[in-house]
Amino acid sequence: MVLFVNRKRESKIKVEMVADARARVGEGPVWDQHRQVLYWSDIRTGRFFEFNPSTGVNSKLYEGEWIGGFAVNRRGGFICATWSGLGLLKPPKEWHWIHRGTLRSRRLQFNDTIADPRGRFFAGTIYDGAPGTLYRFDPPNGDVTAMIDGVGICNGMGFSPDLKTMYFTDSTVRTIWAFDYNVKNGAMTRKREFVKLPKTDGIPDGMTVDAEGHVWAALWFGGCVVRFDPDGKEERRIQFPVTQTSSVMFGGKDLNELYVTSAWIGTGDSPGGLEPSGYDYRAHRGGELYRVKLDVQGKPEFEADFPWLKSARRAE
What we know:
Layout: E1 2-6, E2 10-13, E3 15-20, E4 26-32, E5 37-42, E6 47-52, E7 57-63, E8 67-72, E9 78-82, E10 85-90, E11 94-100, E12 102-103, E13 106-107, E14 110-115, E15 121-125, E16 132-138, E17 143-151, E18 154-159, E19 165-170, E20 175-182, E21 187-196, E22 203-209, E23 215-220, E24 224-228, E25 234-239, E26 245-251, E27 257-262, E28 288-293
């Protein structure tokens, strides 16, 4: 049993491990409303999973490309942002590539992603020692727009229930940004700081937004998930028995089950520089999938809307 703190009360909730995949970098959980299953990936082993809560079985759907993020695709399969390009996947091995190789003279190496209500797909790149870019890919051909350059680590994204606000995380500067969002054309404007975490906390990683417009962010190195109200104030946090909580997603029949991924990468390594003061390097970092049942309801994630193309766009 793990304690969570609420501004109004304190209660006890149960944190349940539902799959032990020893994921190096467990990430990108997406709930499928149609099939009532959760998809998630292990970026650094190229494994793509399906967890079925009705059976308790976590199955491997695919292994190969390192998938940084993905979304269910309305026209079949998944759209996947990998460490070699953007493509459509039908497990176990059918790929149709949309962009492959490089983009704007940069090698494509994606991290977090999200689909919007019109079926567009946002995907951010990640590089060691170099800034990344958040891209928007538009159906049907994958036309690309660079939305934000100079990002330390492109990470979690989400939309407010009224679709007027889009959230975007830059982990390196410990900040979740908010933008005005235009659903008609996919534009992000009026950037402002939503939450900036102190150095004594973990760094913000994957995130989602619930039906009340509160933002849930997994804190890497923080071993927890934090719920922020629409003004950016912390409303509660849930601790987990790992230090590297990596992403979060609502699922279940009533969308009141919070699924949280974690990662064991870095175990035994030297400090990387982003660890908070007092970080316990001997503690268990993660690799499992967890679930928490709450008194809060999430909202369905959007699906991408890309046709299955016969050829890939290559280096530009």
